[in-house]
Amino acid sequence: MSGRRRASSRATGPTPASPSSPSTAELLALIIAALAAFGTETIGPAAFAGCVASLIVGFGRARGWKLSRALDRPRLFIGLAAAYLPAFVLDLLYAARTDPVPALARLVVFLVAAEVMAGSATRRHRAVMLGLLLIIAASAETTDAWFLLPLAAFVWAAVHACAGVTLVEAYGGAARLAPAPRIRGMSGVAALALLVGLALFFLIPHVGSGWGRQAAARRRTAGQSTGLSDHVELGSVGRVKKRHAVVFRARLDREDVAAEQIYWRARAFQRWTGSGWNAGESHRASRREIGLPARQRVSVLERNATQTAGLVATINLKNRSLSSLPVPGPPVWARTGHPTRIRVESDGSLSPTSGGPPRGYEVGVAWPGTDAPHAEPSPSVLDTGGIEPRVVSWARSVAPGVQSAEALARAFVDDLTTRAYSLDTRQIDPRAPLGSFLDGAAAHCEYFASAMALGLRLRGVPARVVVGYLGADRIPLTGRLVVRDARAHLWVEAWLPARGWVRFDPTPSAVRTRPAGPLTALWSGWEWTVMVWDTWVIGLDLDDQANLFASLFERLKSSVTAMLEMVEEKVPLPWIVPPSLIGLGIWLWRRRSRVLAGWGLPRGSSRGLPPHYRRLLRLGAARGVRLAPAETTNEFARRAGAALGAPRAVAELSRLYEQVRFGGRPLSASDERRAATLLTALRDTRRQPSRPATARSEKMRAPGQS
Amino acid sequence: MRLEVSPLPRSTPLGRWATLLAVGLLFAGINTGNNLFYLVFALLAASELAGVLAAGRVLRRARATATLAARGQVGSPLRVTIALSNRCRRLPLPALRWRLTTSRDETTEIVTPPLAAGERASAYGRLTPSRRGALRLTRIEARTDFPLGLGRRIVRLRDIPALALIAPRPLQASPLALSHERGQAVRTTERDERGDDPHEARPYRPGDDARQIDWKATARSNTVIWRQRRSPPPRSLEVCLDRSGPPGPAFEARVSRAAGAAIAALRRGGLVALRSDETLLPAAAGASQKRRILDYLALVEPAPKSSAASRGGQNERTSR
Complex ipTM, two decimals? Predict the structure, then answer.
């Protein structure tokens, strides 16, 4: 696109109605920020509605709406601010007990309203900065992957809003008189900012220990955030399953292990409370505590046990409020990088002591054996206190004639896996949760496992539920496994006299995997996005960064090595050198004008000169006449004319140069022909010094020209 | 003309606030372990970086020329034009408030409009010189916070060839300063053959203009007398500039009076010559002579004492 404009004291173009009315990009940035804050529940519906209303009024101000004009009263906002200040103090004091961020976000919303409706024309960036504060407040309240969308959209809108302001800020208070700026090219800047921002995000060392968040997490009940507390209430694991935060990451020493089939065992519960499960008193009495020296394997087995580890898992905890240490099977030994102590529960699970869980640990587990350690069951695993009558009738109806514990367990599994699975448990009757589930209400793993465990107990088979995680996502590039909250799971362990504790999973696996459909690919893509977001954004830490860069370095090294080997072995030298030379030649040819422009001229003297004058300078330089610093055109023309023996020709060329340089008039076609003729004459004069140059140039003067 | 862009941006008030906010975000990230704080911090820093790169690119690719009117006069506004072209293929060029400083520390400001990719525009301003002589633009500078307002870039025009000759302000020469020594009149042109002054009488010849027959002389004689008439000789003014004395207001006043006398005479259509101890501009009329005289007077300097001692204080001498 090309054009020519001339600026004067009066400029043309659409002008906003009010100098302080926000631009569309500013309003867009603010509405995106408000949406993000509302979507993350940082601000409530009332604050969001107020924010949107003020943005609409601000939008109307730029277009002269009557409503906007009616509200354009600075005193009104001073009064509102005076009224809001005590309300904000109370709001902050009240919210500080739990989370002060929403109160601060509400203050920002109020400032947004004030800024949009009564902002000043000279501080146009303020609205964008307030939007940024809203985005920051929202980022404190979420870890969801969709947050990336408003974040990117806000960057785009903020870049446009800021560019719209800075494009015309040179006009000062008369910015509204400036020609309407066209800022199409700023999308590229926004895209560059996003790309560079992501790169920076990976480069910044994530040294944060998160002590503030840990302190906040310790105040809450761990079960609410992990599902792995001392007890499980029906429905608590279902709530955890709706989240996608990374719980831990693991690396296995074997590649042949199917990630989806790993049961990450965390904790077993034996006592049924009527509405959930807990470990029971006997369990607490039989656990033992062991010390782990730094970097040394320590057996966690009983003294007389002789199991060997078939699989080694290196686990890195992201959620440090876990009350159990998940392991992919019956643990045999454990090792940590720093001296610590852990507890070995009677069910074989590992749990942290009061010092908190280790950040990372290595554990050897029995593999492929899936059974839990052969500890004798306590009497409590047959306790069915507080059971609903419907569960009793159901338990008696399943495989009535079967006596074998294993066959009975499989019959229960077969019965339960035909039932409806859903994370939405609104059909469950809270007064009789298992009964309503067995009557056909859809539920999730807690109900399946609880029903089976109680059913087995009712039929005389010792059983308990185990909480943990099922499956993992394998990270592309590094191959590590990631386990998120959404993989929280409950299953059953039944005591079989010949085998000990054996795992049974009554939850239907088919419905846990999403059925194929038209939106399957879309949903899979979204899940992949969520996984990448959780893994590489939310869960990124210093170890990941080190591993990532080490992996990238290794890959780069191997790629370069492979390429060099391929070049050495397969590609002959003649295939490389000629194309390289040709490419170099093309590059030089395309840049010849720049490379040759200053050839033979004093340094820096050829910039911005018309071609004919540049040639004249070059001709003069060949005769030893160079443009001196601070020498005017006419002075040089006199000197060069005398040296070249053609003062008229040189004077005329200088005049043409002055016409271009100072007159602002480009050379016409006839001028260019004339200049070429004169230059040819000068060059010939240089070759034939015996002929008078002036005479020749006079001869070649075009007819009719003096 | 080369545009030189400051390599690193300077901070702006908004940039300082943004830096403060970024530091707070980093602290919040370390405190809470929330990687989204790191992400917002990275995006904030990257936006600034991208803004710096974009501003540097569009400003470096821009081409600007500053044009100064070749000649001016003390006290009269001199037109200064800045032509700007945005040679960037995608990015817009912001409006720039150029501050122009001359070799005598006179300043003016010109605002060039924002330019879309590939667009060109020019803006002009006025500069009122206070002294005669050669006027150079020594510094042309603009500042911009484009694109995000977080950093300020300074753009300077280098290698400014714009040069103007500032002629003295013409002053009405006092009549007392003009001498009337007719004997020193210098005739440089022939008289016009048309006019009222009688010049030559002879008998009428066929073909002569009958309107020029001198009827009175014809009545006194027996032949028809034809009289040639011509215009009065053109007024010729030789302005003599005395360069003696120290530089200062007195000398400047002499130069201004010389310019005023020459311009007044040239405006009346007369011939004007300029003489000083170092030069003589032959008498001539018209715009070119005016330009020559004013160019000389723009640059003339007082003579050293030795050469000026022998000369009198007369400024202008008129002759007819």
Answer: 0.74
Asked if B82 and B124 touch (Cβ cutoff 8 Å), the reply is: yes
**CA A27/CA A45 separation, integer angstroms:** 19
The radius of gyration of chain B from alpha carbons, rounded to an integer in Å, stands at: 34
| Among chain A residues, CA nearest to B50 | A193
**First-to-final CA distance of chain A:** 41
- A145–B contact, CB cutoff 8 A: no
Domains in chain B, ordered, with CATH? 1-167 (2.60.40.10), 175-189+234-319 (no CATH), 201-230 (no CATH)
User: Which neighbouring-strand residues pair with A250?
Assistant: A315, A481
Q: pLDDT grade, residue B293 (50/70/90)? A: very high
Q: Which residues of A touch B108 (CB under 8 A)?
A: none
Expressed in percent and rounded to 5, the helix, strand and coil fractions of chain B are 30, 35, 35
Residue A655 in contact with partner chain B when CB distance is under 8 A = no
Helices (H) and strands (E) in chain A — how many of each? Answer: 26, 18
Question: Closest residue of B to A162, CA-based?
Answer: B148
Q: What is the pLDDT, as a whole number, of residue A578?
A: 84
Percent of chain B with pLDDT over 70: 86
Other C-beta atoms lying within 10 Å of the C-beta of residue A560: 10
d(C-alpha B19, C-alpha A483), whole Å: 36
* CA-only gyration radius of chain A, Å: 39
Task: Please tell me the distance from the alpha carbon of residue A588 to that of residue A144, in angstroms, as a whole number.
Answer: 52
Q: Do B119 and A3 touch (CB under 8 A)?
A: yes
User: Which residue from A minimizes the CA distance to B26?
Assistant: A208
A209: which chain B residues are within 8 Å (Cβ-Cβ)?
30, 33
Instruction: Say if the Cβ atoms of B111 and A171 lie within 8 Å.
Output: yes
Instruction: Check if A209 contacts B (Cβ < 8 Å).
Output: yes
Over chain A (706 residues), the average pLDDT of each successive run of 10 is 42 40 80 91 87 81 70 70 81 74 82 69 71 90 86 92 84 63 76 92 78 49 52 79 77 85 87 82 73 86 74 83 84 86 84 79 80 62 78 90 89 90 83 88 90 91 90 74 85 86 85 58 73 77 80 89 79 78 87 55 54 86 78 83 86 86 77 88 64 39 36
Residue in this structure with the two tokens 């999973």, named with its chain if needed: A505
pLDDT of the residue at A480: 79
Tokens of A512: 């846990």
Contact yes or no for A325/A361 (Cβ under 8 A): yes
Q: Which of A192, A216, A428 is nearest to A321 (CA)?
A: A216
Asked if A36 has any chain B CB less than 8 Å from its own CB, the reply is no
Residue B39 confidence (pLDDT) above 80: yes
Pairing type for strands B197-203 and B280-284 reads unpaired
Chain-chain contact of A171 with B41 (C-beta, under 8 angstroms): no
Residues 6+ apart with CB under 8 A from A590: none
Neighbours of B275 (CB within 10 A): 17
Characterise B49 by phi-psi region: left (phi > 0), alpha (psi -120 to 50), beta (else).
Answer: alpha
Interface contact A662-B70, CB threshold 8 A = yes
Coil vs helix vs strand at A107: helix
Note whether A43 and A102 are within 8 A (CB).
yes
DSSP bridge partners of B144: B153
CB contact under 8 A, B46 and A143: no
Cα(A403)–Cα(A244) distance, integer angstroms? 42
Start-to-end C-alpha separation, chain B: 51
Task: Tell me the mean pLDDT in the region B86-92.
Answer: 86
Q: Does A389 touch chain B (CB under 8 A)?
A: no
